[in-house]
Amino acid sequence: LASKVSISVVLPTVSRVALCGGTHGNELSGVYLVRERLKRKVEEEEHISVVTVMSNPRAVQQCRRYTETDLNRCFTHATLSGPVTDKTPYEIVRSQELNTLLGPKGSPEAMDLVCDLHNTTANMGLCLIAYSDCDWISLHIYRYLQARENNHHRDSSFWMHFLIRVELPIEIGPQAHGVVRSNILSTMQEGVQQMLEWVRLFNSGTPFEGGKVDVYTMVKNVDYPRDFETRGITAAIHPQLQDRDFCLLRPNDPVFQTFSGETLKYTGTEPLYPFFINECAYYEKGIALSLARQRSVFKSGD
Amino acid sequence: LASKVSISVVLPTVSRVALCGGTHGNELSGVYLVRERLKRKVEEEEHISVVTVMSNPRAVQQCRRYTETDLNRCFTHATLSGPVTDKTPYEIVRSQELNTLLGPKGSPEAMDLVCDLHNTTANMGLCLIAYSDCDWISLHIYRYLQARENNHHRDSSFWMHFLIRVELPIEIGPQAHGVVRSNILSTMQEGVQQMLEWVRLFNSGTPFEGGKVDVYTMVKNVDYPRDFETRGITAAIHPQLQDRDFCLLRPNDPVFQTFSGETLKYTGTEPLYPFFINECAYYEKGIALSLARQRSVFKSGD
């Protein structure tokens, strides 16, 4: 018989926070949040040092995801330590600059918390993404934001999720790329304020209670059906699945509707949770949606 | 005293119809509708000759609005008759090719009806746009589609409008550029089928009753508030205006919310109808929304 074990985790102070927007130049909530902070020269939020960064200014200027290669895929040790020549893509050069500014990755000088602000065309609400379910800081922040959200917006149709995937920290949608929507920007602004508030409370020794957190762990990506020869897509997300991110997808549920009108169903045997449904930027990556398993993590208090 | 005068308009047969998609390469409903027709080699729809065209294949391949210049702004007599050199932007060369294929503009060989399929990120539903309120064919088609829509989708939240502006014929939204949504694609497919159905009935001599049609006539464009020096935008569409295309905007109604949280109100004295609210591609054109006057046109029967 398993017995419940209480784990005590010692976490260091979060003294250096980086706030990044425009990692993808056409995801405008982060772009305008960061631009506004830079304009008002906000460098300190009640004793936390916050470094505000426009990650990919060249892509922001062109209002494109990236100019030569996806910046968000450049933060590997190989790319960060590779040689730079005249022909090196701009984003690789920029990733090395950012690594110097915010890292170096894995060093003791690195930022304690990097909050990277993204938008998605998927109906994902506010979604925090972490590397693992042992990322206690992110789990605590998530719980804090969730509690605040429940208190303040009981009637709101806006919801939050916590997702484990190797990449990105905060996604918010639905918002078309290249567009800024006030409500989405306000929600992101509030989320960032609450995150910084949590960091302040945490640093000042405020105890946070432990408890259950539902997390989603990425299982796999699903591509669009494609034409064998041209590789062009031959179907769109089915209307019954569109916008239903984080709603359980069961075997035989509709997934795609082909351009000739046929319905294609989910052939998996395990019910899973879809997310990033119909994200614009993932057409080129061969991802129509991703699937996750949900489970509960019992997070200890501090 | 004005007396009601019945006008009889003689309209020639609509024997040559062109169906264009991908005029903007990232507006995917038209792209996939056209691609599917080309794949199935649909060239004749019950005795109407329909020329199906992918307007800007290079922009479609890159999933961008355009590669060098906006194709939709190239169809002026000056551009269409200008010289072509090695340095001429691709879209200008392509506009001349299209003019040869579908026109020449103003000539007796020109298509009788060019249906150009577009998407918008604005919540405009299905919107037919015509050059003037004397465009009887478009007004008839609009009435026909509207009647069909009322019969078939009484519960649908989808709605239609008829807009007079110098440009484009069919817009449908909201849909993020670079994304295809099944429901939007299906609505466009149905709209196109009904338009062709109307053409068939019209050509075979079916009489259509006259009556009142509400049309919107463009009055002016409104730009975002901008930073005097950088020209960057300093506000987004106000949450109370976002998605309320074709809902009356009255003096003192909120229009923008600045990034620092201030509300900016409509300072005009005439209530007007907003449309193209927060259209992605119009940020670069300096258009946050357009304003129209609504009025009724009494369309005669044939």
Question: Any overview of this molecule?
Answer:
The structure is a homodimer of 302-residue chains. With 302 residues, chain A is of the alpha/beta class. The first copy, chain A, folds into 2 domains: 16-208, Aminopeptidase (3-Layer(aba) Sandwich), CATH 3.40.630; 214-299, N-terminal domain of TfIIb, CATH 2.20.25.160. Helix content of chain A is 25%, strand content 25%. The longest helix of chain A is centred in the middle third of the chain and has 22 residues, at 182-203. Residues 1-6 and 153-157 of chain A have low confidence and may be disordered.
Please tell me how large the radius of gyration of chain A is. Answer: 20 Å
Q: How confident overall, as mean pLDDT of chain A?
A: 85
CATH superfamily annotation of the largest domain in chain A: Zn peptidases
Which CATH architecture of the largest domain in chain A? 3-Layer(aba) Sandwich
Approximate helicity band of chain A: 10-25%
Class from helix and strand fractions of chain A: alpha/beta
Regions of chain A with pLDDT < 50 over 5+ consecutive residues?
1-6, 153-157
> Biggest sheet of chain A: strands side by side, in what order?
2-3-1-4-7-5-6-8-13-12
Main β sheet profile of chain A: 10 strands, mixed
Strand content of chain A: 15-25%
How many beta strands in the DSSP annotation of chain A? 13
Total of domains of chain A: 2
* Overall geometric form of chain A: globular
Q: Describe the oligomeric state of these chains in a short phrase.
A: homodimer
